[in-house]
Amino acid sequence: METIVVRLAKWKMHRFLSNHPEIAKSLPPAAVFTPSSLVTFMENHKSVYIKGNTLHTGKGIIKAWRVPNGYQYIRVSGKAHYSPSAIDLYQEIKKTNPNQMFIIQKAIDLATINGRPYDIRVMMMRDGVRRWQYAGMVAKVHGPGSVISNVRRGGGYVTTVEHALAQSKFDKARIESIKEQLISLSKKIIHYSESYPFFSFQSGIDLAVDKLGKVWIIEVNLHNPSHALFYNLTDKTHYQRIRRLYIDYRKHNKRLL
Q1: How many helices (H) and strands (E) does the chain have?
Q2: Which pLDDT value is given to residue 67?
Q3: In this structure, how many other beta carbons lie within 10 angstroms of the beta carbon of residue 251?
Q4: What pLDDT score does 1 carry?
Q5: Domain spans of the chain?
Q6: I need a surface site. Which of 71, 88, 123, 230 has the fewest CB within 10 A?
Q7: pTM for the model
Q8: In the chain, what percentage of residues exceed pLDDT 70?
């Protein structure tokens, strides 16, 4: 019997989402991490992310990019390391976790706050009668020198989506339009997730906005998404709604997985 970790593996979820055209257009290009895919992605994209297929919460994520005489990469945060060739870079990454399958993904040129990128967590929750509801969204800002948005692991912070987008120089009308897109895309994702082989009653969908305002899918978390991100906002409106929906679901339903 498949474990939860295997059922929620990144590559399996990516392939599932890729089957739905409404969603696929918002997925960054991705592939299984091999020597040949590394070379191809490095030739076609300015930078890439390399992630463990069954690792979550930002663990071990690597950002890599070309430099004149080879490649540089950062694992989670800190100083950049150097590799003289693609095969050397591949071997350096694989030896950190030899039994782990990795995926490679185009790095999106994310919108920033004071030079620090951020992505956006959208919470979708089932209510007491199992209907999915939009519960709230929050911006997760990368920590100094970090290539991930996971607040605990990367040393970043949370802020409201409105503040983040305003700091990225989007005007009020564009901010409202982007928020509508974030919610609409999340609803589509959660609609199609009903046919994914995993039961979920709360989902944290990680989306991102690039510097031109296009919305992208980063990761879909169907299991045990953090409520604490929303508690850390000064305005507790989203957190209170999440907790109400959570309590309502648990009160009327026994099924958790």
Answers
A1: 10, 12
A2: 96
A3: 8
A4: 43
A5: 29-106, 112-252
A6: 88
A7: 0.96
A8: 99
